[in-house]
TrEMBL record:
Belongs to the peptidase S8 family. It holds the Pfam family PA. PANTHER family: CELL WALL-ASSOCIATED PROTEASE, SUBTILISIN-RELATED. Residues 232-483 form the Peptidase S8/S53 domain. This is Peptidase. GO terms for biological process: proteolysis. Residues 813-894 form the PA domain.
Length: 1244
């Protein structure tokens, strides 16, 4: 399912707060009274520092609501960031990384932020990013000095690589080193191609690999082989897994060597997986009086622990284990019940190592296919390696297990899996270090099937010690028990039968696999050979035939129907694979070799994939002047698995692609709106290209139109986002639709304009939407001369000019060094300087301050707007002077005028609005295609007015953001950088229409985040909202309501710090705010948590009364002197039949307060109860009490009920300083809330 993700572009250090998902039920355990429920708490926000140095923060959503992804650019970064969300996750690509991914130089998994977090590769859990760096042929080994922040952990000689860790804190320096040096390899020497330095070939994520989690050995015939005296004696089998219980009676005498490749862990199996696997191979059965033996009970075991006690390992650790097993231990068989569910080709480092080590040592790698089910291309690496004997799972009736992964291999359609074996409900040894009782336990998975085959190979190696790994593989495949109801891509050659292999006089090539046969207008037959080997003392004549199964009769043809195989020799026959007239698909069959009695002596599985019709698709790119340019294109096919990047050089790129419908896009920097050196961002391409013949697609910026928003009052975008949604299956967005995807580009203020190429028409297959989102506050700074406004951008960290308009003379101060100010009368003036690498921003600012400069204007010497840090070196404190950048063309024109003017100065008009009194949150969306007219006119016809007031303490910093929720974002939303807000009023104008929902958040750093209910604004009317003012108390919004799940459990969340606004939920995270959240059934405590969420399990199915209780404490008087303690109880009933959200009564307060949160002593107070989740349910009663002595004495108030609000007035004594509230409200169904707020607000 596609993921629901929200994305933000951040330029500062402030990040949105963490949201929560209800805890998933743990595998075992139950909350006991007085204890937190298992799995309690809110999933924390996770930050991932990418290899580029950019920081991505992922904040989980609540109860299926979308997560938030925020991007913090590395210091000095320029350009934009693209996000792509599809079925595989959310990817964040800084634009200087996309070309490396497109050329395969850098693993795209390094940018899949959701997958990185899922693997534990976020900054909190992994201070360094694990990588595998492969080298060019002949390149010397990588050393610690070669790349900044990189530590070499392992040499991986089999793949010419090093396993390294890259410090997150040094990521930006590492990236600079990676992209700075030219690559010397000729194949990447063409102009415009990306390159890596110092002999580095590729950079891979050192990803996590999981165990691939039967009935017995008799299913594959092992006991009868034992009866012949062959039990695996003298054969060493390496088991690369989670370690082993070395004291288990079935294994203690079989282990001859061991080594752990998991840092900080010994060989002990605390997971239970490795012990189970090892005993299937070579368990002696001693703990069961010989009953539960493994397949080869006399084989020797070399145990390599490559998976941790948590069941995962790194790719580099697994490669190191493989090298140890094959080179150091000289194991004949290497069993690997593990795999990476993110890699399905054989080009990754693990698969490459299997192929290399198999060729080098002759060892046979027996590897699990994986448990990803029946879908095509689901076999996991390293089981995808051609040399591996890859194993799927069947049950006791030889029926394929539903979980067993399927082929073919991705990339070349190679045959996988190779064989199957028992893998369902397999009884084998239990490690004493895991839960359970007894010496044995039952498990299922291709993990269990794999050791059956590894043990079978050990029995054959005992019988034929001279056989290579390939001979063992051929023997097991060609003598397997056929499973004719399964295609080769599901069941391989059949279920392994070691007895048949043991008794076989003749074995055949296990498979003939042509892989993908390329489409051609004149396809030619492909010839292969099948080899038969006779280990007997007399010649054997075999009758040959082809079982075509469901493949066309003409596809597979033998050049002989009989072959005689000499004693102790081999013979071969030819096989012709003729794709002419064969439909495009994967095809399989069998060649059957029968002896004189007509019995099948050996069989060879056949597979071939005939490629569908293909045509040339030529991609060219043009800049705004129509000249050739290079760029990185994103391609998605209607029938394709996922998106692909392609680097398009200036000369163009021709792809040979299947007949299909394609979407092609390119985000590209182009000339902007302020001269040749200004920079805009353009979306180019065509969302619907029907490839039925040779086609050319032009990413043509010369045809692009400017995308802009015209606002009624002057404004300037601080952030812009351009995104597109594309589906080949649905004309309208359907959240979560598989195959849909979104491309999005976050465009910062260093771009002066946005452009888009109009589409030829509207799409006819599926749907398409193009959306532009602007956040445009009141223009913060305008600088003009001669009636012309300069393109200026206030710089980060610089001081702001006071509000208002003034005039200032401008003087030119060169590069802004102290010496250039020495004889320049600059005090009180605007100094114009050039950006220079010789003078840092802070040095320019300090020199300007020393000269008494009022405003520093920095003329950029590069493309685009300069967007640098002019604050202090701590990246937090403001710098000493106001600074704005000017784009190069306009800045140089101003310098020319200054040089030519009498006295060397020019009068400027400067207007500053450091704190915006208004802003525009705008969206403009087009469906079906991109039109010619892309000007959005924001006016009363499409805007809602929202009057806001921010009531935070004057010394308390706060920031605000508003997320938009387009219908196509898989139910999610997008947001920009939380922007600082000043205390007091602000008027927001927000787009209506387009089906967009908006959700606003206000954050006090390191203290709390307030979140409003999502709202779809109507055009008519004015809306009001208040933030960060009393009364602070527990208040839910819809996403917080408790949920009864599966009838037996209840997930709850109650944020304790909702403020005075309209339906705000406030979440504290430190800063002196704490809470305890408890759930009771009657008076029995079910679950308790020190955070705002939890889970209760094993509830009674009967309708019973429950209480959700929140006790909160505010010890941070500098944040707020109010709501020092609160106590809230929600009462409700619930039963098993209600697998749904549970409605609860909420309380809102409106008091007549000044800016300090204080009321007159006779001021009014309004209490408005509502039933969240059941808005039409009536309120039956309300009781309001006040206290003027912090709850020592309570006074019941007389109230007047009007329009769903209960109104009253205070009667505070002169001695009182605070008002405390205790309110009880009940609805007509019996639900209720009782809420006590001590020091709810102050008194004047």
């Amino acid at each position: 399912m596609a993921l629901g993700i929200t994305v933000a572009m951040l330029g500062g250090a402030l990040a949105p707060s963490a949201l929560a998902l209800p805890a998933a039920r743990p595998a075992a355990g139950k909350a006991t009274p007085g204890q937190a429920a298992p799995g309690k708490g809110v999933p924390p926000a996770r930050t991932v520092t990418l290899i580029t140095g950019d920081k991505v923060t992922i904040t989980p959503g609540v109860k299926g609501t979308p997560a938030t992804v925020s991007v913090q650019r590395r210091p000095g970064a320029t350009g934009s960031v693209e996000t792509l969300t599809d079925d595989t996750g959310t990817y964040v690509f800084p634009d200087d990384a996309a070309a490396f991914v497109a050329d395969g130089l850098i693993d795209r998994r390094l940018f899949n932020v959701t997958a990185l977090v899922a693997q534990g590769y976020d900054d909190r859990r992994a201070a360094a990013l694990p990588l595998i760096i492969t080298r060019d042929t002949g390149a010397s080994r990588l050393s610690a000095e070669d790349l900044p922040g990189v530590t070499v952990k392992r040499q991986l000689a089999s793949v010419r690589a090093e396993a390294v860790t890259a410090k997150r804190s040094k990521a930006a320096s590492l990236w600079a080193a990676l992209v700075a040096a030219p690559h010397t390899t000729a194949r990447r020497a063409s102009a415009g191609s990306p390159s890596l330095p110092g002999g580095v070939d590729r950079i891979w994520l050192d990803g996590k690999v999981k165990a691939a989690l039967a009935d017995s050995t008799s299913q594959i015939g092992a006991p009868k082989v034992w009866d012949e005296g062959f039990t695996g004696t003298g054969v060493k089998v390496a088991v690369l897994d989670t370690g082993v219980d070395v004291d288990h009676p079935d294994l203690a005498e079989r282990i001859v060597s061991s080594r752990s490749f998991v840092p900080g862990e010994d060989i002990t199996d605390r997971r239970g997986h490795g012990t189970h696997v090892a005993s299937i191979i070579a368990g002696t059965g001693d703990a069961s009086e010989g009953k539960e033996k493994g397949v080869a009970p006399a084989a020797d075991l070399a145990i390599g622990k490559v998976l941790s006690d948590g069941g995962t390992g790194t790719e580099s650790g697994i490669i190191a284990g493989m090298e140890w097993a094959a080179r150091t231990e000289h194991a004949k068989i290497i069993s690997m019940s593990l795999g990476s569910s993110t890699a399905h080709t054989q080009t990754d480092p693990m698969s490459s190592s299997v192929n290399a080590l198999s060729k080098e040592t002759g060892a046979l790698f027996v590897i699990a296919a994986g448990n990803s089910g029946p879908g095509r291309y689901t076999v996991n690496s390293p089981g995808t390696a051609a040399a591996a004997l890859t194993v799927g799972a069947v049950d006791s009736a030889d029926q394929i297990a539903a979980f067993s992964s399927s082929g073919p291999r991705e990339g070349d359609d190679g045959l996988k899996p190779d064989v199957t074996a028992p893998g369902v409900n397999v009884l084998a040894a239990r490690s004493q270090y895991v839960s359970g009782a007894g010496f044995y336990t039952t498990k299922s998975g291709t993990s269990m099937a794999t050791p059956h085959v590894a043990g079978a190979a050990a029995l054959l190696a005992h019988q034929h010690p001279e056989w290579t790994g390939q001979q063992l593989k051929d023997a097991l495949m060609s003598t397997s028990t056929a499973t004719p109801t399964l295609s080769a891509y599901r069941g391989g050659s059949g279920r392994a039968d070691v007895l048949a292999a043991f008794r076989a006089q003749v074995v055949a090539s296990g498979s003939v696999d042509t892989g993908l046969i390329k489409w051609s207008r004149d396809p030619q037959p492909v010839e292969r050979r099948i080899t038969y080997t006779n280990s007997g003392s007399s010649a054997v004549t075999l009758q040959l035939s082809v079982d075509h199964q469901e493949s066309p009769e003409t596809l597979f043809t033998l050049d002989a129907d009989q072959v005689t195989v000499p004693a102790q020799g081999s013979a071969s026959v030819g096989l012709v694979v003729d794709p002419r007239g064969v439909p495009a698909a994967g095809h399989s069959g069998q060649v059957l070799a029968r002896d004189d009695a007509g019995a099948v002596a050996a069989h060879t599985v056949l597979s071939a994939t005939t490629e569908p019709e293909r045509h040339d698709l030529t991609l060219v790119a043009k800049d705004r002047e129509g000249r050739p340019m290079a760029g990185t294109a994103t391609l998605r096919a209607a029938q394709g698995p996922d998106f692909q990047f392609y680097n398009v050089p200036e000369t163009g790129l021709t792809l040979h692609l299947p007949r299909d419908t394609y979407s092609l896009t390119m985000f590209k920097d182009v000339r902007g709106a302020h001269g040749a050196h200004s920079t805009g961002m353009a979306l180019l391409g065509d969302p619907e290209v029907e490839l039925t013949q040779a086609r050319t697609v032009a990413f043509d910026a010369s045809q692009a139109q400017q995308v802009r928003a015209l606002t009624p009052r002057p404004s300037m975008p601080t952030n812009t986002r351009v995104d597109y949604w594309r589906s080949f299956t649905s004309a309208q967005p359907l959240p979560g639709t598989i195959g849909d995807w979104i491309g999005s580009r976050m465009i910062g203020p260093d771009y002066d304009s946005v452009w888009a190429q109009p589409t030829p028409g509207k799409v006819t297959h599926g749907g398409f939407a193009f959306t532009t989102r602007w956040r445009s506050p009141q223009t913060p700074l305008t600088v003009s001369h001669g009636g012309h406004d300069l393109d200026v951008l206030p710089q980060n960290g610089a001081r702001r000019l006071p509000d208002g308009a003034t005039r200032a003379d401008a003087v030119f101060a060169g590069n802004g060094t102290p010496s250039e100010y020495a004889s320049l009368p600059a005090r009180g003036k605007a100094a114009v300087v050039r950006r220079s690498t010789a003078v840092s921003p802070s040095e320019q600012a300090q020199a300007a301050q020393a000269a008494g400069v009022k405003l520093l204007l920095v003329v950029n010497d590069r493309q685009g707007r300069q967007n640098s840090w002019y604050g202090d070196a701590d990246y937090e404190s403001p710098g000493p002077v106001a600074v704005a950048s000017v784009t190069r063309d306009e800045g140089e024109e101003l310098i020319t005028k200054l040089s030519a003017s009498r006295g060397g100065h020019v009068r400027l008009k400067v207007t500053a609005h450091p704190v915006p009194s208004y802003l525009y949150d705008l969206t403009s969306s087009h469906t079906g295609g991109i039109p010619e007219n892309l000007t959005h006119r924001a006016d009363a016809r499409n805007l809602a007015r929202v009057n806001l007031n921010f009531g935070q303490n004057e010394k308390t910093p706060a920031a605000e953001m508003r997320m938009d929720y387009p219908a196509y974002v898989f139910g999610g939303g997008w947001n920009f950088l939380p922007e600082p807000v000043a205390r007091g009023p602000r008027t927001d104008w927000v787009s209506t229409g387009d089906g967009t929902n908006w959700q606003q958040k206000v954050t006090v750093p390191n203290t709390l985040t307030e979140t409003a209910e999502p709202v779809k604004y109507p055009v008519a009317g004015t809306h009001q909202d208040q933030w960060l003012s009393p009364v602070l108390r527990p208040r839910m919004i819809r996403e917080d309501l408790p949920v009864r799940q599966d009838g037996t459990s209840l997930a709850f969340r109650a944020r304790a710090w909702g403020d005075s606004g309209t339906a705000h939920a406030g979440e504290g995270y430190g800063g002196g705010l704490s809470q305890r959240t408890s759930l009771y059934q009657g008076d029995t405590l079910l679950a308790e948590s020190d955070v705002d969420s939890g889970h209760a399990w094993d509830l009674s199915p009967d309708r019973l009364p429950y209480r959700l209780v929140v006790d909160a404490t505010n010890d941070n008087s500098s944040f707020s002197p109010y709501s020092t303690t609160t106590h809230t109880e929600w009462a409700f009933t619930s039963a098993a039949a209600e697998n749904d959200t549970i409605a609860l009564v909420q309380l809102d307060y409106a008091a007549e307060l000044n800016d300090e949160g204080k009321a007159r002593r006779t001021a009014g107070l309004a209490v408005t109860p509502s039933v969240l989740g059941a808005p039409h349910t009536g309120i039956a009663s309300v009781r309001v009490e006040v206290s003027y002595d912090d709850g020592g004495t309570w006074h019941r108030q007389n109230t007047l009920h009007r329009d769903n609000t209960w109104n009253t007035h205070l009667a505070a004594p002169e001695s009182a300083s605070f008002v405390s509230l205790r309110t009880t409200a009940k609805d007509t169904t019996g639900r209720s809330i009782t809420q006590t707020v001590i020091r709810a607000y102050g008194l004047k």
